Amino acid sequence: MSDKPEKFIDENGLRLDGRQIDEIRQMKIKIGVLSRADGSCYLEWGNNKVLVAVYGPRELHPRRLQKADSALIRYRYNMAAFSVEDRIRPGPSRRSIEISKVSREAFEPVVMTHLYPGAVIDVFAEVLQADAGTRTAAINAASLALADAGIPMKGLVAACAVGKVDGQLVLDLNKAEDNYGQADFPVAITQDGEITLLQMDGDLTQEEFKKALEMCKEGCRQIMEMQKEALRSKFADDLLAVQVPDEAAESIDVAATLEDVVEEDIIEEDVGAEEVSEEPSEETSEDDLAISEDAEIELAEDELVAEELDESDADEKIPDVEVEFVDLLDEEADEEADDEDKEVASEGSETREQ
Ligand code: ADP
Questions:
Q1: Does the CB atom of residue 86 touch ligand 1 within 6 A?
Q2: Would you state the torsion angle of the CA atoms of residues 213, 215, 219, 221, taken in this order, to the nearest 10 degrees?
Q3: Does the beta carbon of 84 lie inside 6 Å of ligand 1?
């Protein structure tokens, strides 16, 4: 471990790595890097390098672990043996079990698990290179990997930490600031501003606590912008691959287009009155409405793709997705149940320990 620096902030108010006290490290994001995962993201943040893979929703085995009314989220945070200067002993540690637990809880309020009873959503966060802030880096990447997997969420989750060095609060600690600083305060926030992770190591006064939280919120706001931009550039590429005709591309307004398609769809296919009614019936809960809106958007997106493709082509592609999912739930899972039983039984005991 490197020696403790004499000063963390110089006379110009700059930190050892040249950053302002409220400046986050440079972030690079790549979504969809693993072909076998349902969703994935590689993220570099300063000298941190993390890779997250998401699998699911898929049927949970053994079945006794299934939740009748929702999907189970499993989150595994792991540091590669070579991720720090000294080799890390492979396998779960107290620290990695704790981080896995709090990270899973950071996502539980946003992932719409009630849509997949009996299923499991697995999130594997692998830290390839660590330089402080790995739990927050993994959460930022996991949020995008979940979105990449097409898992319905109420919004993204962004995370960053504030710490204290030389008696001053600093945003997004680097390793020296984390190791020798007076506090470490990681926070995760949803798109709606709900705090889903808040930990504190060290000492902060009440005033510092409030200020630290404000700094974290601002850091998370900036990160969420980067996350959205990464999603836009990933899925804009996919949209371009659909080859929108030139005249349509000139005035492309995705939101408006989706709305139009929903309307057309309603008129043309004479969808049942309860599905198209804008007035909620007395029995219709807010959740039901949210789900039916999501279903309409999904339907509209499918229709948008189908319109741009040759009809026969579209007919082949869209049902494939459903078949694949049904297979996964009903047949493939049964065939592989024995293997998975063994594998998940050991992971299950790990989950229960958490
Ligand atoms: P976070 O990475 O979320 O900030 P910690 O505050 O626990 O989590 O760790 C800070 C940093 O200390 C890590 O990013 C990593 O660089 C280093 N570190 C953590 N655990 C170990 C370990 N077992 N061996 C060596 N370095 C470690």
A1: yes
A2: 70
A3: yes
